[in-house]
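Form 12-C: Joint structure prediction
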Amino acid sequence: MSDLQLLYQVQELDLQIEARRRALQEIEAALGESGELTGARAQVNRLQELLHDQQRQLRDLEWDVEELSRRAKEDEQRLYSGAIRNPKELEGLRRELEQRQERRRLLEDRELQLMAEIEGTQAELRQAESELARVQSTVDAKHRELRAHQAEVTEQLATLSTERARLASTIAAANLAQYEQLRRTKRGLAISKIERSTCQGCRIALPMGLVQRVRAGRDFIFCPSCGRILYA
Ligand SMILES: [Zn+2]
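Section 2 - Result
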């Protein structure tokens, strides 16, 4: 087999290797993508924080209500103990008691409102958690698929690279170097096939004499238009 035929096989392998490298990059990118998951997780975190905050507010309120009840009870005891006889002082105490009771009613209303809000947040949180679980399991399944594909492509890449190295070792160093150099400057395609007297690399029609020289296959003949090595 001539070096040109061997190089053409090397090029076929290089194209396949390149396609698999691109596939691996795409797989890597897809494995890194987690926009939907990040969004679902952020929603759960937000609701957990909100719930925590509301529960803390409720505990504070409960504490305030308890404190007000305790002090109202003390006021009542003093009011009805008979120890205070001064009418002005009694009136002042009664007003203070009424204010405490009014304040307690307001806080109790707020407590009820907050409890309803907490129930709402808990329901939203349950929904967000089940959405997160759903997204997570979809992503897990997708990742399992991607990893399996990744392993498969990696194995193919190793086989192709071994075969490429084996073939390359049988080709004259200067010819291989010329191929490598053209491959870099001609967008991965150093050798161009001739079909119906046309260079497939640049689609230009080639003179018959040139095509015949390529068919004779003694030297490397270059396309006069794109500069690639012609192969018949
Ligand atoms: Zn050409």
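Section 3 - Comments
The helical segments are 3-32, 35-80, 87-168, 173-185, 208-216. Residues 192, 199, 201-202, 204, 223, 225-226, 228 surround zinc ion (CB under 6 Å).
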